[in-house]
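Form 7-S
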Amino acid sequence: MGYHESVHQSAVGKKWSYTHSFHYDLTPSEKLLKYTNYILTFCIILFGISLGVLSFYIEEESQSYILFIGNNNLTGLKLLIGAGAVLVLLGALGLLTAIRLNRKLMLFYIALTFIIIIVQGAGVGIAVQQIDTLKDFVKVTMYNMTKNYADYNFEKNSTVPLDYMQKTIKCCGVERGPGDWNSTAGLATEWLKLHTVDTPDSCCRTEKFAVRCGFGQAKDIPVSDQIVYQKGCLGEFYGWIDNKVSNVIIIAIANFVCQLSSAAFLFLLRQSMSVITF
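Output:
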């Protein structure tokens, strides 16, 4: 480790100009801290992009089910989208800090890192809590919509969203699958006025879809004759949202590790430096 100052002299017209240059020699251990921080801050940038994009994707996809979600505002996801953008900037700042080896900049980066970790953690916590509330809301909404689902000859608010969900998620009914549509379950009271063992056509598998393809599919039939999806929509929706939230949590945890490691390494590097380099 060493600090060197050199003076350069040059003639400009009749005047002499003096410039000073500063150079800080890092020890092998300091170089290790510096270059490891390069890797960590690059990971922070990648994780920040991943966190923001995935949170945005979940929010956008959830809007496809807005009639089920209602006015449940996913504030936690919005917070994570913002956190993802800030993490990209934080990673860039970390790279700059390691390159410049400025002690004041290092201190600012370390403080900012802990602030962002708190915000990021709050976003994940809020998002998880809101998702749990959302699940309960969707369950009640789906049962109500199934109860009021009408035949295709009628226009009802429950018909279109349920058809959309059954086609999109590739499911049928709420929890019991096709059985939710028959008279034994007794859930779809409007539907049962004209049907007792039929499912809506939106339950039919994509390759089997045809007008009235759901007729007779709500009763127990051999597997070879089943042309509708057998899983309930509620479980499929839960699985979809749980998978996406799990990915967000994994990315957030990985980011926590990278952020804390980066801040720790820069702190150690700052402590070992006895000279500020500009």
